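Our consortium's second objective concerns turning raw sequence data into structural hypotheses that experimental partners can test. To show how far this objective has progressed, the report includes one record in full. It was chosen at random from the queue rather than selected for favorable results. The single chain below, 315 residues long, was entered without modification.
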Amino acid sequence: MDKEKSCCYEEGNLIKYTKYRGRVFLYAYLLLVGAYIFIFSVLNISNVLLYNKYKFDLIISYGMLMFTLFIIFISIFNLIDYFSNKIFISDLFIKIKRATLGKEYIISKNCVVGKQTIITSVKGMNNSKVLLFLKNGKTISTGHLNCKTKDLNIINNMLDFKEISDRKSLKKSVENKDSMLSTLSKTVDSKRTLLLNNKINENDFKVRTNYIFPVITFSPLILLLIIASLLFTGYNHKYGKQEKIEIRGKVYDMKIEKQENDTNYMIVVLEDTTHEDYQIDVSKDIYYQYNINEGIMISAIRGSLGIIYDIKFEN
C-alpha cells in the first residue's frame, strides 16, 4: 500500500492514521492564502503604521488588518490541524496527537470504557471525530479526522469499544457525575469495576505538552484581539498623543457612491501648501454646502492610533 497517498496503513499490529496530504491541494491552498496574506498585509500594515499623511479612512485599514489577521489564524490553524494531527492504534495503546492544542495523549486500551463516533459527511469525506471515555471520567477527542469512510471504518475497528450513541445522556452525564457513572457502566459493562470513578494508572494515561504549535497558531488571533480592544475601548482618543490638525485648501472633487441600502458622500480636498489630496466621507448636509474649486478649511484631532476624529468644516 502506498503510504504517502493513504490515510491509514498497517505496520505489523500497528495502525497509523494521518490526514491525506495531497500535494496539489497543499500547493493551491498555500498559493491562494499566501497571495491574499501578502497583498492585504502589505497594504493594510503600510496604511496603519506609515500614517505620516493624514488618513481620514484609517479605521477601514484597521478593519481590513483585523480581517487579514483572522484569515491568517484560520489558515495556520487548518494547515497545522490537517497536516500535523495523527493517530496511532495498536493492540495495547492509542496515541492521539493534537498539534493545534499542543497535546499528545498516550492511552492504554484497558482504561477506555466506551466511545462515541460523530460523523459529518461533506462531499464524500467524513469530517468525523471519535470521543473516547475513560474510567476516570475524562473524555478525549481525536479531533476532526477528515477521512474517507473506509479509513473511518478501519479506525473504528481498531477502537473496538462499545459505541455510545445517546448524546443527550452524555450531555447530562457531564453535568451530573452520578448520571455518567450509571449510564456508562450499564452501557459498557454491567460490572461495577468499570465505573468511571476508578483511578487510572499513570502509565496507562499520559499527556505530553508542546506549546510551539499553539503559540504559532493563536498569535495572529491574540494580536487581532489586542487591536480590537484598543479600538473599541476608545484608546485612540483617550490615551497617548492627541494632535490637532488643520487642512486648508480647495474642493478638488466630489463623489456620491450609491449602495443597496445606503448612499456615501465624499469630497476630495487638495491642500494648498503640500498639494496632498484627502478623501473624506461627509454627511449629505456637509456635501451640499460645497462646490468644486471652493475654498475649505478642516480642523480635527488625530489620536494616538492615527485615527482622525472631531472633524469640523469651515469655508
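The partners drew two points from this record. The mean pLDDT is 76. The radius of gyration is 29 Å. Both points have been shared with the crystallography group to help prioritize constructs.
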